[in-house]
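P.,

For your records, the input lines for the assembly:
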Amino acid sequence: MDVLGNIDEVQQHVKRVRMEGRSVGFVPTMGYLHEGHLKLIETARRENDVVILSIFVNPLQFGAGEDLDTYPRDEERDRKLAEEYGVDVLFFPTTEMMYPEPMSIRMSVTKRTDVLCGKSRPGHFDGVAAVLTKLFNIVMPDRAYFGMKDAQQVAVVDALINDFNFDIKLVPVATVREEDGLAKSSRNVHLSARERDEAPAIQESLQAGRQMVMAGEKNPVRIIQSVTKFLESRTHGRIDYIELLSYPELTSVDVIDRPVILAAAVFYEKARLIDNVVFDTDGKITTG
Amino acid sequence: MDVLGNIDEVQQHVKRVRMEGRSVGFVPTMGYLHEGHLKLIETARRENDVVILSIFVNPLQFGAGEDLDTYPRDEERDRKLAEEYGVDVLFFPTTEMMYPEPMSIRMSVTKRTDVLCGKSRPGHFDGVAAVLTKLFNIVMPDRAYFGMKDAQQVAVVDALINDFNFDIKLVPVATVREEDGLAKSSRNVHLSARERDEAPAIQESLQAGRQMVMAGEKNPVRIIQSVTKFLESRTHGRIDYIELLSYPELTSVDVIDRPVILAAAVFYEKARLIDNVVFDTDGKITTG
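Structure tokens returned:
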């Protein structure tokens, strides 16, 4: 595995790879790799000749009062995992390299952001769009891999690629789950034993909503009511939101006549968990 | 010459070219080609294996009340000129192809724009940055060619490439001039005989300012005063601005201790003419 810290080096490396006709799969991360990341790497490994992993904690996507300074880091472990999972190039830039001076051009994501988790993180996806534009231009991949756990991020990347004609295939990868269906998350360790017992209800409630669609229900309001009731009866966690929106546009729908996302966020004592399911008008899972 | 209207076709074509190890030079235009464009094409032709010319009148960079609808077009002539000057690929997309739906992500150029011509064209360079991001991702050139006549545009493209790590070399090309030094412009035909006689004074006045720097003057205020006086004595045109700014940052300077642009815009009866000169602390011309 090559560990490259220099932007020019990566661009030169990728140009050689592409001139050899070899395909490049890209997994952008903020490090502190967990099973979700490893599944992205595994998927990229299967589908490409060369796999490039980037680790960069992007200050631009953290708001005031967010946890930029305390964001967990473990370079040594990340490096070993990357090697073990067959990454060819690990790109590990410094902040100074990525942002040598304040940017002159700002990106503003004006759609897909004022819903779900985006509501409570103003500017977050602007920073995501900017750093991904940079990373896409540095790594120049054929395919880029993102986890469906953060479905809103996938929707924003979809907009970025389409709006600006990046010649990159977006590959959404299904959420990795515990045996009982709970979405894997580094935050799950903060759950009490009772909360951990209850938390699988989040995905169960979303699947119950999907079942309603499979059974012919097309009314989002009734589905959300039913999911809310189900979830409230199964957990003491406080529901932050349960939303049903078109996917990937993330607009509200009066009737389910196109692919949709059904998503939830739940506050526990020391963790806020999110999960979602994306399905078409028949309730068939379409993405991830 | 291949005439391609389809974004995918261009991307596939360029990928083949690059896999063959051949270099790509890109000349983005809004068509109605004049000698300035032809010099860009000639320069690209000399420096690259493959030359791609795009012709697209980008609605995003026209403000309300600007001349989008009446912008001159002559596809047949442009096509012949492109062929004659050795263009390999002419990319001629429709507006529907470039903007199939309203964009979700906006670019805002927050520096280098509130000076020179940018002052009177709010939002113009936002549209330029967005369409160039798209075109760069479609054409994936090694080098991109822009005329120094619009030095502010060159400065914005420089910011775009640096901010977002495009692996593209920006090549500024010197302004094409009449024998008497007047910058060539499709607007020169709107000058009266007397205005045409006077108009070379614009470049002469800027060169006089540069001579002052060569003679040791480092004070921008005195240079602008002198250039203004010179120009007012030589033409009846109304001066819109004479500015001296750092280049390419386009910030005001108290003393000439870095490369600068000295630029002017003059209103005549039926045309507004612009011109500039870029030089270093010794008055040596540096760009274009």
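Two observations worth noting. Chain B has a mean pLDDT of 95. Residues 42 and 85 of chain B are 7 Å apart (CA to CA).

Regards
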